[in-house]
Amino acid sequence: MDTLSLGLESLLIISVVAYLAPYIASLIPGRPIPEAVFLVFAGAFLGSHGLNFIDAELDSIQLMSQLGCAFLFLMAGYEIEVKKVTGPMGRHASTTWLFSLLIALALVPFLPLGDTSDAGRWAFALAMTTTAYGTLAPILRDRGLEGTPVGDAVTVYGATGEVLPVLAMGILLSTRGTWISILSIAVYLLICFAVLLRTKKTKERGSSAFKYIGENAESGAQAPVRAVVVLLVFLVATAYGMHLDIVVGAFAAGFILRALVPRGNKLLEGKLDAIAFGF
Asked: What is the pTM of this model?
């Protein structure tokens, strides 16, 4: 069977599971179990370590997986206000993650890891500090917690606990050397900052490009959505090209989008929600 047929078969199963998961979750009174739990278990049960009905290693499935993940973290980054990340809550979240890492490092020597190398033990400790924010974001939305004090706290702490381990893991496991990895992260942040400044200045000047986007928000061109897709794919592709995790690129795209639309845009948000949480 050719790879296209295999990819379509896997995609069909994934689509059916994605459709059924929220329905099954809704059948349980009070919905105590989020649909994300059903999705995770279905993936484990039907994937390569289970019944092997889904070939997750196919390039087509991998690309769709990465793209879906990127849209999810784009919205996560968009939900976070910069002042919350740079303010007391953001600093406390970073400090909390650091203490979590120290606790994990203290526990690792007592775990049955055999002859694992020092780098492997560090990697295991970092994995213990991750928040799996990609599963938390849909739960917050389903519970109607977005914009509440609890929702804001979970978002900031969850995002911090997702990005910092990813960056640390990239430095730890990089084959290019620690300082080159740190330099790559610094250069990438500069690229993101340059994109933000350039786009903001263009918007403030009232350029024809931004006028076109505003005038074609509801036309077949769907200009705002396509502009966001360009921003997202550019930053994700750049991150991947610099050997960084795509989560970093997706979060950066969300931060930039929030900076460009500080007061939000319900029309655009509705369309992006459909892509991020529907697709």
From this structure: 0.81
Angle at 82 between CA 81 and CA 86, to 5 degrees: 125
CA angle 167, 169, 171 (to 5 degrees): 70
Q: What is the C-alpha end-to-end distance of the chain, expressed in Å?
A: 26
- The per-residue pLDDT for range 99-128, each reduced to its tens digit, is 999 999 899 888 887 777 777 888 888 888
- Measured CA to CA, the distance from residue 56 to residue 165 in angstroms comes to 24
Q: Which residue has the tokens 């999810």?
A: 72
User: Side chain identity at 121, as an amino acid letter?
Assistant: R
Plot region of 160 (φ>0 → left; ψ -120 to 50 → alpha; else → beta)? alpha
Q: Are residues 162 and 133 in contact, defined by beta-carbon separation less than 8 angstroms?
A: yes
Per residue in 74-90, pLDDT (tens digit) is 888 887 777 777 788 88
Helix (H, G, I), strand (E, B) or coil at 231: helix
CA distance 107 to 57: 33
Q: How far apart are CA 244 and CA 184, in angstroms?
A: 8
Nearest to 33 by CA among 142, 185, 163: 142
Local structure of residue 58 (DSSP, 8 states): S
- Can you list the alpha helix ranges (DSSP code H) found in 3-148? 3-27, 35-46, 59-79, 82-86, 88-107, 118-128, 133-142
SS3 34: coil
